[in-house]
Hints:
By secondary structure, the chain is of the alpha/beta class. The chain is built from five helices and nine strands. The protein has a single domain, classed as 3-Layer(aba) Sandwich (Rossmann fold).
Amino acid sequence: MGEKVVGYVRVSTEGQVREGYSLTYQVEEIERYCNENKLQLLHIYKDKGISGAIVEEDGLTVEREGLQELLSDMAYHKVSQVVVLNTSRLWSSDVAKVLIQRELKKHEVYVKAIEKPNYSIYTHDPNDFLVNGMLELLDQYRCLEIVLKLSRGRKKKAEQGYREVMVTGKVGQVMGNGILIKLKLQV
């Protein structure tokens, strides 16, 4: 088997699942890529239902359990690459990008983005830098677009008399007395 790599998958919204970014799809693509390229896939780290933009700036950490586990395991496993479907799975904000890339570079780990075959966090070519930057800006635009759509949807529900209430419980939605209660499983 070839060089040691790990995978990382993340999905933050149901919309991303509908757009083809489901965890299952991402895992399958990473496994296929590793098999085709004879890479030794040690583990695939997962974050489900977590935004890529959650950053604790005071402590300079990215608040994602799967990603934190990946970053702490890199030195132990001595991996050469983190394989992702798209860099937007690792970061969608500039602060998160800087923090994650700093940790990857500390261990000399590359990012292999299947949908961006020429991407490198170590690029020195101005053309590659420009193209990678533009692609990441498009990813950020899509993220902001999703946030805006979700915000509009919540506002519309509120105008219809629905109120969002956060409670810990089973995953699903319960309707009672004209109030929409969203139940989320919190681990």
